[in-house]
């Protein structure tokens, strides 16, 4: 074990000969002596770590996982998994995010940079013991110290590098469905949004658009005029966002397949033949994303669709999901033939069930193929968690070769820390369950903590059938997540905003329009979080240090100014809300409503009808809103509205930039610095415009600590 | 459609020629004219009912189902289903309980007495519409009117007949596990409870005890001295409770099978041969519980185990569950052979999956066998929901032939209203999920409303692996349900009270001991609910009429005196509680703790540590406690403790009876009438003992409205 110094607060412990994941961009090169801290570490055939937790210690992080913000009491496995049934006992989802923080008698963070399976038993088998098992002997482990949760997260986000930033339009509403079968159908959907005045910035294409599920292909029959379709939709600000799957169909004459074979770009089996698995297209090879040449090759393939006008993609099935392998199905048939000879009893019956049900995503398949990395042949299982990550990287690198200064929308299903620099993620194939609003809500801060700022869940749920009230409540949550996509599976009930009755449609329309109204705020806060290496969506305990703020899991801070308290149960017309300080409650029916109330620090029951949701503006903070529009491109920011809750003085910096280029990385942006102070009968508003050419006027509404409402206009 | 008068408040509408389910004991025979009320009814090939709900209408009931106490917003199917994965989208569980109440602009109850599939779309497809589909044209429908929820429930419970009453020991703690493989293991478990001083009244035997899963058999190898085992355990107050499955193994020489064949006691296929299905024993026949002779035959078979000392049973797999049928498996193999010839693609791959996964509980199998009822041959599908009910009835009738005046413990998995007169139910194969504490909590009042007073969930969850905190919290809830059984599936983590660390063990021990301390209260309240045709576990909205009481779903009333507010989320150390009137909060660490606090009407945040739970004593009500003991037989009731929250005057009647016989049906019981009044500095306690020979002394603790604590002793 070698210890490296990164900063005063961060050490890296290198054990054995770790595989380079590139999760961390500042690994430190100064070797210095020192023992492993906090956890007791045992290195044998595997690495085991143990930490004795105190009664009140809390554990945060681990990104995409089941359960709460505080991860104590359960066991989690980092192993990217395609499992669409997110029941509470699941230990793995699609992402593998090995960063966590313990807050308590010791407060520190730890990142296990290991690309295969890691198990985190957070007081599950033994309540007081945090046990980590690393399935290997070669790893980097980072320990991050700091005075507070906030500082530790900040330090961690600094060493893993800044978050991916999508184009600004990706903060608009995105409609998706597995089952939009033709270009006409897509256009009809788009037109329905326009007719009904429901804002829309993108429509995702699922598998349906492809020719026989072939990556980068287009069904000639169903999407014949794809290029002009893109053009027509983009005139209305609507971008088409196609899916790209990991597996490449094996088919003579299919260019991608043939190029892949010629270039040796596919992962191989033990005989050095391209590994064969079956997924949506039938039999496929998997591009060897861990191989630099293969990655570059695949990345450049996005160009075909981009040349047709596409500006965003989602990468799917990249855990990679495997329906079955050639070896797997042969063995299954052999087993079934044996079983057929028997009079089935309980054991043999369950064996029949298992034989078929274990075909999918079988670990033996993951162990039977290899990647040709710079350091030689590596078994897939040993790098399983960075496969999807490197598909994201492939796409991102590909985009750079096409237009280095253009932002493309990109989000992925599988991920690992490091992938956050190349794309966003969605939280995978959830269900239309009320429990999954809860999961969505609780997962967001954990994802942010692990670097995935541009993220969100399939709004209204992917699997199962939606009920109308769930649709309303889920939209009321998702308007606060950077990725705001409504997506559903083939065969499930429609869940577009207009799939319900007119009252529901109106409520969801107003909700989406509110989202568009707060884009100036969301974008500003998101970009500041990216640039400052901070979280965008935070649990209360990041900003408030009182006991209860550390325990609350059903309220979130969105950026620096606001707190939300979603309704996540059916038939509820109100809920309890904890306010760790005085806050201004805004009950929103639509972005123009003016229903303000000062809520004192403490416990509150807040009535919330089905057609409204609550926004809490923190003390001495302000929220910035513009006017909604049909799409982000139509947003007129000449006048912005400020709602400020000011006991004495509030400051806000409204960040903005061009929203389309990477110039922000060079520090090219604008800001408006706003200071509002209130003192008895006087108020003072000071606004300094640093380069924002759009905004001409601020309509300021100040609610003072005593509840006085002051309206003022500032011309810039 | 013929309308019958039952009472002023209750009408029966007879449509076509309904199958007699015997759900209702007072069907009324006075035919009188009148239209169908409230719902619009259409009778065609099926019956469809529609009701326009107002915005604030609430819908309660439907017994064993997913979702909340208010059933609005989802769709439910009454079709007894063996499906152990209770995810939120499931429409059917094990029971079919077709009674509901709408409370709102109209307030009325309805019972659809139809033994096959009924679908209740409670504003799912159209938010304002309650649509009921009855898959047939012959049914009885009851409409129950009344001034209040409480009155409607009461009227309904009166016409369906009084609840089954178990022996009093069945209010003790019951330990269960699929996987107690031998008599020795069972005795070890029992001894461990005794050693550790954890109360115990019963141990359930799952499949393991049988010889090759044969009903009424005993494994000679593993349970060789069953009779003496029973005797030894019963000396310590511990009863063995074996499982009985619906299916009878086909095996030459097996007496039950041979008798069944000889007597024509099995359900038959279309060729009048006994229908063959496969379940745990391999191939089985299903006793024709809808045939009176078969029912009597099967019922008498319980005698063998009873002669060995058994006093309680649980009936399982009686939906009936079917792993596969002969025809089903043959067809599956044929399909697989066809698929084998193909290069699998997506469609054929999913067909392979479906082929195997659709073997279980396939509706085609339910449609392919018949019952020989008094009214001729009836297809199973048409009476599916009363099959398990009639197994319960078979057992109960059998018990009567053995000892008519003895109470046996009996609970079933499948059920239909009517079965509540013959046995209790447990809520089936739930999981060790926090979501299933919530489900347990919300289901209890719905079950009570449908007549199933003796009921409870598998505490700590059947499937999946428990975490220690979930074990604590679930026990803290289950101590208030009449059936309090901890049960788990083969292969899951142990979840007996001593399966965790010593601190957890101590907490759970104190929790179970508290249960034993409140048995005098629970039994008294349970019996009064039975005798008065009332609910035992109620949602707040039954007793309180304010708006929020109608909405609260995470607090329950247990009997007449107390309210509980369980903790049902991990890592929570407190929760919000709504008190619709002033209440006395008792924070319980153990039954001797004295941590009382008056909570004013309104909203409260209550700190609750992991080793405590809350009990709220209602205003002018009292709670009665005794001393815990190792088993109910050791409970010494010479001295009882009363905790009374008295603003002015509280009355309580403590019911008791012998707890073992059916004499209570003849009105043979005892009571102690207690009246406590408080007036400034005076208090007055009046206790009249009507035949209770055990209780000699009442230790009374009065907490007055002003928080004054008065202790007094009353000798009886």
UniProtKB/TrEMBL annotation, chains A, B:
InterPro entries: DUF5110 (IPR033403), Gal_mutarotase_sf_dom (IPR011013), GH (IPR017853), Glyco_hydro_31_AS (IPR030458), Glyco_hydro_31_C (IPR048395), Glyco_hydro_31_N_dom (IPR025887), Glyco_hydro_31_TIM (IPR000322). Residues 536-622 form the Glycosyl hydrolase family 31 C-terminal domain. GO terms for molecular function: carbohydrate binding; hydrolase activity, hydrolyzing O-glycosyl compounds. The keyword Hydrolase applies. It comes from the Bacteria. PROSITE patterns: GLYCOSYL_HYDROL_F31_1. Residues 46-121 form the Glycoside hydrolase family 31 N-terminal domain. Pfam families: DUF5110 (PF17137), Gal_mutarotas_2 (PF13802), Glyco_hydro_31_2nd (PF01055), Glyco_hydro_31_3rd (PF21365). Residues 164-524 form the Glycoside hydrolase family 31 TIM barrel domain. The keyword Hydrolase applies. One of its GO terms (biological process) is carbohydrate metabolic process. Residues 640-703 form the DUF5110 domain. Keywords: Glycosidase, Hydrolase. Belongs to the glycosyl hydrolase 31 family. PANTHER family: ALPHA-GLUCOSIDASE. This is DUF5110 domain-containing protein.
């Amino acid at each position: 074990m070698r210890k490296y110094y990164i900063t005063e607060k961060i050490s890296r412990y290198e054990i054995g000969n770790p595989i380079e994941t590139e999760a961390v961009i500042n690994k430190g090169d100064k070797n210095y002596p020192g023992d492993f801290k906090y956890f007791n570490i045992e290195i044998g055939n595997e690495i085991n770590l143990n930490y004795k937790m105190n009664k009140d210690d809390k554990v945060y992080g681990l990104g995409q996982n089941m359960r709460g913000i505080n991860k104590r009491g359960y066991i989690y496995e980092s192993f990217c998994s395609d499992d669409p049934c997110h029941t509470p006992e699941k230990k793995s989802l699609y992402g593998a995010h090995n960063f966590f923080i313990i807050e308590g008698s010791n407060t520190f963070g730890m990142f296990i940079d290991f690309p295969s399976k890691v198990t985190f038993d957070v007081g599950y088998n033994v309540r007081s013991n945090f046990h980590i098992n690393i399935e290997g002997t070669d790893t980097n482990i980072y320990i991050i110290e700091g005075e507070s949760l906030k500082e530790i997260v900040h330090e961690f986000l600094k060493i893993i590098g800044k978050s991916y930033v999508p184009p600004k339009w990706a903060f608009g509403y995105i409609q998706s469905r597995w089952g939009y079968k033709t270009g006409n159908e897509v256009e009809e959907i788009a037109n329905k949004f326009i007719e009904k005045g429901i804002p829309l910035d993108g429509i995702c294409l699922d598998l349906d658009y492809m020719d026989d599920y072939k990556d980068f292909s287009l069904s000639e029959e169903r999407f014949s005029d794809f290029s002009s379709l893109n053009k027509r939709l983009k005139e209305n600000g609507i971008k088409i966002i196609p899916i790209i799957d990991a597996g490449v169909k094996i088919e003579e004459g299919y260019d991608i397949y043939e190029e892949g074979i010629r270039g040796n770009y596919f992962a191989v089996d033990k005989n050095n033949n391209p590994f064969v698995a079956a997924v949506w297209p039938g039999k496929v090879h998997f591009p060897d994303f861990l191989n630099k040449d293969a990655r570059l090759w695949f990345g450049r393939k996005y160009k075909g669709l981009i040349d047709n006008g596409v500006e965003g993609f989602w990468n799917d099935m990249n855990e990679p999901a495997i329906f079955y392998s050639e070896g797997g199905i042969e063995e299954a048939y052999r087993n079934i033939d044996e079983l057929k000879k028997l009079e089935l009893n309980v054991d043999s019956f369950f064996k029949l069930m298992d034989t078929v049900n274990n075909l999918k995503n079988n670990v033996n398949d993951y162990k039977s193929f290899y990647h040709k990395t710079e350091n030689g042949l590596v078994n897939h299982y040993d790098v399983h968690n960075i496969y999807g990550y490197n598909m994201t990287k492939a796409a991102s690198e590909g985009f750079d070769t096409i237009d280095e200064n253009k932002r493309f929308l990109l989000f992925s299903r599988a991920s690992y820390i490091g992938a956050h620099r190349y794309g966003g993620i969605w939280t995978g194939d959830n269900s239309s369950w009320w429990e999954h609003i809860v999961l969505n809500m609780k997962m967001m801060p954990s994802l942010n903590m692990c670097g995935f700022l541009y993220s969100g869940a399939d709004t209204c749920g992917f699997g199962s059938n939606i009920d109308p009230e769930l649709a309303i409540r889920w939209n009321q949550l998702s308007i606060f997540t950077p990725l705001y996509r409504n997506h559903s599976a083939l065969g499930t009930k429609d869940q577009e905003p207009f799939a319900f009755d007119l009252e529901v449609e109106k409520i969801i329309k107003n909700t989406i329009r509110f989202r568009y109204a707060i884009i100036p705020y969301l974008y500003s806060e998101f970009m500041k979080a990216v640039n400052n290496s901070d979280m965008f969506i935070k649990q209360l305990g990041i900003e408030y240090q009182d006991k209860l703020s550390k325990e609350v899991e059903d309220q979130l801070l969105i950026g620096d100014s606001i707190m939300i308290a979603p309704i996540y149960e059916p038939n509820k017309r109100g809920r309890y809300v904890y306010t760790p300080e005085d806050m201004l409650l805004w009950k929103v029916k639509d972005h123009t409503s003016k229903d303000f109330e000062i809520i004192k620090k403490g416990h509150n029951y807040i009535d919330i009808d089905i057609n409204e949701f609550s926004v809490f503006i923190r003390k001495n903070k302000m929220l910035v809103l513009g006017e909604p529009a049909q799409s982000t491109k139509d947003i007129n920011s000449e006048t912005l509205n400020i709602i400020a809750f000011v006991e004495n003085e509030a400051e806000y910096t409204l960040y903005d930039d061009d929203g389309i280029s990477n110039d922000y990385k060079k520090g090219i942006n604008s800001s408006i610095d706003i200071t509002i102070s209130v003192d008895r009968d006087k108020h003072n508003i000071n606004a300094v415009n640093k380069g924002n050419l759009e905004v001409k006027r601020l309509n300021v509404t100040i609610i003072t600590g005593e509840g006085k409402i002051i309206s003022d206009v500032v011309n810039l």
